[in-house]
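Journal club side-thread
Mid-discussion, someone asked how the predicted structure for our own chain would compare to the paper's figures. Pasting it here so we can look after the session.
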Amino acid sequence: MSRAAGGPRVVVIGAGIVGCSLADELTARGWTDVTVLEQGPLPAPGGSTSHAPGLVFRTGPSKTLTAFASYTVEKFNALAADGRSCFDAVGGLEVATTPERWADLHRKAGFAASWGVRDAELVGPERCKELWPLIDETKLYGGLYTPEDGLARAVPACRAQMERARTRGARFLDRHTVTGIERDGENPGRVTAVVTDRGTFPADHVVSAAGFWGPVIGRMAGVDVPLQPLAHQYAKTRPLPALARPGDPRAEASMPILRFQDRDLYFREHVDRIGIGSYAHRPLPVDPFEVPAFDDAEEMPSSYPFTEEDFAPSWADCRWLIPALQGTEIDEGFNGVFSFTPDGMPVLGESRALRGFWLAEAVWVTHSAGVAKAVAEWMVEGRPSLDVHDCDLTRFEDAQRTPAYVAERGARQFVEVYDVIHPLQPLESPRPLRVSPFHARQQELGAVFLEGGGWERPHWYEANAPLAEGIELPGRDAWAARHWSPIAAAEARATRERVALYDMTPLRRLAVTGPGSLAFLQRMTTNNLAKRPGSVTYTLLLDEAGGIRSDLTVARLAPDRFQVGANSPADLDWLLRHAPRDVHIADITPGTCCVGVWGPLARALVQPLTRDDFSHEAFGYFKAKETAIGHVPVTAMRLSYVGELGWELYTSADLGLRLWDTLWEAGREHGAVAAGRSAFNSLRLEKGYRAWGHDMTTEHDPYEAGVGFAVRMEKGDFVGRAALEALGAPTRRLTPLLLDDPSAVVLGKEPVYVDGAPAGHVTSAAYGYTLGRCVAYAWLPVLDSGTGVHIEYFGEKVSATVADEPLFDPKMTRIRR
């Protein structure tokens, strides 16, 4: 698409911190025909960037966001405006006033070690007082100090990046209000121009970096932007004598930025005043279509009047922690607007509905430069160097994109900004949203539901509580015991010893049909799918660099008809982007359902219900058959994600309840139980089965991830093949670990230490009830089996040993029988 040495024509909508950073990153990569359009005046046009307090704390549960923030710190440290750095590395201090928060800061210190933030340090109350003399240290359990965090000077950083981008050819035009997005007349699925009140700008690529105006721009393009703007309170005190200090009169701060998350507050200095931000108030949603223009706003479009009544409780909390504030008052304040999504993550990527139209939305200053780098790499090189699947605009299900859902979940994300969130903690509302046909039966069995992708997912069944009696299990700490029950052990045992029914309905199912379907799937995936109908194949989706986009289970049901077991909406989007005209792809998940029947008695349960031969000789492992179970037509696949004999049985949603009832009634004589995701996760880790998005992503190739068996180089060309050919020997591996102490448990994302130094992190972990030990998989340097390592769990070093896999049934005798 390159038209000249300057590359394609790019129009970026929005000259806030994201738009300016993106222009800088694109032009640095040789795409210099870049126009940035802004409706307000430059350099402070009135969006969220113009009022951002600029706090940058790098560390959080998300590896991706931590990497974005780390790059932002690195880049802004090297930028200068008016002779000053665009980043003040005053440090960050998060304090704990409750035991729960103090424990969470230990967990966060673990995240820092996992994600490579090496300066994080847990400190006691006295050290907190040294760092922040105004604080009452008697209120504290301690704090987490990160010396390299600090204050991003957002508007100067915009100016500095504008200047660099301009020297490379970019132009920045203010006072240009976008009024439309034009499409190609012959190819309406392709963007061609941006229309403004001052002219039309032809474009090969358009990037919406419009901040909380993102839904407005999205509507012009016919692209859904799941983003909810909310107002957030920020206030400044009157001058404080305690802040008077000698030195550089331009220095805004000398103390670290401070988080008091137990009360949803943060603090920073403004020379001799304290700035206070609060998330403690009620959500204040803003309609992006009703935001006034710059010239019509009282202050700026992103600044709403301060609501003192909302701030009153927070002001009392401020004075409780910082006694020096008792002698002053709030001098000024405002409610600043910024963006939230249903899951709190940015929305990035190119729309498939309108090719060439990109989103870089819901991005805070903290992550701005990192996001811009990722999007620029995506546009210029075809992929980001980081895994961004949890930011991809395709990640939301249709039910999660409705205006009501986005508004409710966006508001909840605001409320939970500083909450201590357990990794299994389900959302409370709106629920139930998506349920399988078996939901009523699951409720009768006392299912305890968690949630994922909008689906109600049973994690265990209270009806199985009697089966847990007498099972000896180690005690769990309060954190590991959340959203867990010893009933999971009973369900895992029942699966290993008898037979269990698992609701697999939430797993995504795609129908791929048409004359070109085999050739298409062969080109898109790594394994050889040219097998007889009735064959099932485990395979991978790679990107051009050989990174794992997803793993799939592909059943060939007829010469030109395939059922694909996929992971996320992104898989459907990826396949649709590449599908030729003679291939049809449909998401059949909502209209179908699935029951997994697994355990040594699975054949005894299923065989009497069908006229077809379900013996191992007639229905082998990784085979599929269209048959009937009682009165229900099903597609049966001889697969097992738990390491036991069994089948996945698929049927239409209208027949799902009959299928469940038929299996349940037949299972009575075999001691069948309903089992949940908690047992499922334990069983799959004992077998070493990978979970895409947790254990492997685009940052990993198949060989280091331990799934090289799904690659058939001899089959011919496929996406990512050339990159795999160029690989050397792996220097890291997805490594199975067994915790040495049978009573120890970890949950995932913890740092792993080799020879006393952080060397990697845990991806997935669960207690292996069959093995009597916790199983953890971790990305580590290549280590020999038997090597001892340590996993840091809430500040404690837990010993573990590198194991050989699979840990359970290495000869696969239980599945193939």
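Post-session note: The longest strand covers residues 757-768.
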